[in-house]
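Changelog note: in this version the structure field was regenerated for every chain. One regenerated record is shown below for reference.
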Amino acid sequence: MVHQRIRQTLNVVGSFLKYLAFLNFVPLVASIHYGEEWGIFASPWAIPSTPCIIYLFSGVIVFALGAFLERRFKSSEAIGRASGFTIVSFTWLCVALLGTIPYLFFGIGFIDAFFESMSGFTTTGATILPVVEALPKSLLLWRSLTQWLGGMGVIVLFVAVMPKLGVGGSQLFDREFPGPMPERLRPRIGITARVLWSIYVGFTAVEGLALHFWAGLPTLDSICISLCTMSTGGFTPLSAGIGFYANPLAESIIIVFMFMAGTNFLLFLHLRRKEFILARDEEFRLYAIIMAVAAGVLALSQQPGLWRDGLFQAVSIMTTTGFTTCNFAAWPFGPKMLLLALMFIGGCGGSTAGGVKVIRARMLWKHTIAMMKRAISPKAVIPAKYNGEVLPHEIMQDIISFVFLYVLVLSGAVVVLSFMGLDFETAISAVAATLGNVGPGLGMVGPDMSYAWIGSAGKIVLTFCMWVGRLELFTAFMVFMPYFWKK
């Protein structure tokens, strides 16, 4: 059974990698367009001295590896629940590992390259690059593409474009799609995945056009920012972030699309079907309320004339995008703690945002109220409800276990980083920012700093946090359980 599961996992992962290989042609074309040469980056490898060869080489390696795995480990078995965990976990790990190839050939060390690649695909936005502008334009585009691909989800894309996955695609979709899903999507999971990606592509295109033609941002900057907004990724083509442009219109456009990216995309799917349930959805209402209150508090906490920074950072941090217009690490203690709380909450389930998710916070609150009522009236039947429907006991168990595991991983990682010499503010915000896929933190990992100064061991810990955070803990941790491999 275990042998068959491993064989099936390698086969499906290989199929995925074959598709992923073609992503390299986008920066390849950009490299040719900009006529790039090596610049300040010296390749340690004996290959021709034009960066476009790097992307061609990377694409060939990924495609060849994918084709080998697909042919060598053929499997006709249907994808079951256990295989869903291994396929999703190892797909994300392999994608991040192979995503390091362009960075390696531009002279970046493996640990740093793996950190940057994982940060991209998991839409975290934490960077080890102290001067982003030093990168070739093609590599800036590559960074943004990795975030955009990871935003809606690598697996969701493959489920959309690979009909051969069949019914098994639902097992993969469930393992990757963020947040609990009271609404079941079967049996038309492939069609749903395609529609979600079409909405995602449409929003990205509209934002890119608005930033370029309406707000007047440069073409490449507009493309990179739009890719990293809808994915709630946060990579920017400039070290100074969005604040460099000093463009209120661009900031307003980005705020709107960050808010949309942090919303459950299934609600947009309902809108597309002319089902107007947005205002009735409990999670969306709470999401909008928390966002409005936090934005108001942070805006009022700023000096006169700087209220835009408070508004922008509230939306950016709660949606876990991580764009910055100022160095919020220098803010007073109160506003910084509010931002830290927003990092934990995150956006809506079913969005591209990270964090615990608003839906879990809402369901936990409902469950807590129901438990308090039962304490007063032990014999009364007082079910917790969400959107008018009784919450299944299994979902509440999953949520409670998830929050416990989230806090456990957070605490453990903070302790480990503290032993490595990081101060408490830096350690807890670095872990919160990577586990919640936010990006910038506080202290020594604030918006004006990078993660480059952290030692290799610390970067490995934070890279692990990004991986398990994007897979919402259970999917990643399942493969480490001995019980899992006995089934």
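Spot check on this record: Residues 393-486 form one domain. The CA atoms of residues 183 and 393 lie 15 Å apart.
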